[in-house]
Amino acid sequence: MNWTGREIVLGVTGGIAAYKSAELVSRLRHLGARVSVIMTRNATEFVAPLTFQTLSSNQVAVDTFQAPEYWNVEHVALAKKAELFVIAPATANILAKMAHGIADDMLSTTVLATKAPVLVAPAMNTGMWTAEATRENVRVLRERGVRFVGPGNGLLACGDSGDGRMSEPEEIVAAMEEILKPRVSMEGLKVLVTAGATRERLDPVRFLTNDSSGKMGFALAEAARDRGAEVTVVKAFTTAAVPHGIRLVEVESTQDLLEAMKIEAPLQDVIIQAAAPADYRPVDVLGTKIKKQDGQELVLRLTETPDVARAVGLMKREGQTLVGFAAETDHLLEHAKGKLRKKHLDLIVANDVTKPGAGFGVDTNIAALITEEGIDERPLQSKRALAEDILDKVMGIRK
């Protein structure tokens, strides 16, 4: 990746690992990046601001009220300047502030104001890293799209051994490159994404459905749109906000979804089926509301709905790339590999919906990207980050 001129803002907090951040600045400068450093007061007890000023060739910001070199509101200027905002080391304290929107110094104020991607490299005692409060703060930040690198495992400054070591500068640079690297363009491609949960009517006021919110499908649609693709979303019921800049086709039932796909699928280059169709529908749909029967059991007769993904697979034409999803609660890889072949998919995204942070209704996911060639495990990350990984894999398949 060409780092020349890339604007990096580095936050340094109060931990012994702050000395590694000096090497990180040096590496970035040698690569050609521009680096602006913000230090907390505690960080200056470990490394002098002059060190970072010399390495970065920029003034170091510490005090919210210090006079800036040029007139501006400095925390806002740095927040806008950043292409990537990195905090290394990131203490438990700064993670807590970020999770709860506390802005009481230059660093916490600036990171709250930035719209740039944020990458943090935690560094702390193992007990602090594994504490319930820290784990909850990390979960909240991941759901908001904050990326993490590390911490690593090893001997800590306190003498303990375990998780909590800040990642090495080369690992942090690699994580930064993964965020900043140019994404493969999808300009000229037609992409269809399905999203949300289908509903199977019991009567005029009741239906069978599932917990899908549409967040994963919409993240994929946004990512494809931002890469220049012409995007169509076939949307069942969703609770997430519908992206702008896409063509929308709305459906309700699984049969509706199938009929829409029969029309739309042949026109597409890439089809990503992230919707969660109901597997069963009532045999009989009543025209009036079902009433209670004085304590008697209500027996529903259900029949399978159409297998939309398999139907699309059977319609697959040369040059199309098909992606499916497998939301499972057991035997994840076994079930997913079976669906990959049965539904004639090029890629299947498998996730265990019983894992915290994965599955329906949350902003994060944990997934395995499975092709006939192998399995690429993706850790807990935002659904937008996973969407980018999926599209990278799609473009790799199309090559």
In round numbers, the mean pLDDT is 90
Contiguous runs where pLDDT drops below 50 for at least 5 residues: none
- Kindly estimate the percentage of residues that lie in beta strands according to DSSP: 15-25%
Give the total of domains: 2
Strand order of the largest sheet: 12-11-8-13-16-17-18-19
Number of strands: 19
Helix content: 25-40%
Rg result: 25 Å
Task: Describe the protein.
By secondary structure, this protein is an alpha/beta fold. The chain has two domains: 7-180, 3-Layer(aba) Sandwich (Rossmann fold), CATH 3.40.50; 190-398, 3-Layer(aba) Sandwich (Rossmann fold). The protein is 34% helix and 25% strand. The protein has helices at 18-31, 49-56, 74-81, 92-100, 106-113, 126-130, 132-143, 169-180, 215-226, 254-264, 308-315, 332-342, 383-398; strands at residues 7-12, 34-39, 84-90, 118-122, 147-148, 152-155, 161-165, 190-195, 200-203, 206-208, 230-235, 247-250, 270-273, 280-282, 302-304, 321-328, 347-352, 364-371, 374-382. Strands 12-11-8-13-16-17-18-19 form an eight-stranded mixed beta sheet, sandwiched between helices. Strand 9 and strand 10 form a beta hairpin. Helix 1 packs across helix 8 (169-180) and helix 9 (215-226) packs across helix 13. The longest helix has 16 residues, at 383-398. It is elongated, with a radius of gyration of 25 Å. The relative contact order is 0.09. The model has no long low-confidence stretch (mean pLDDT 90).
Short summary of the structure?
The chain contains 13 helices and 19 strands.
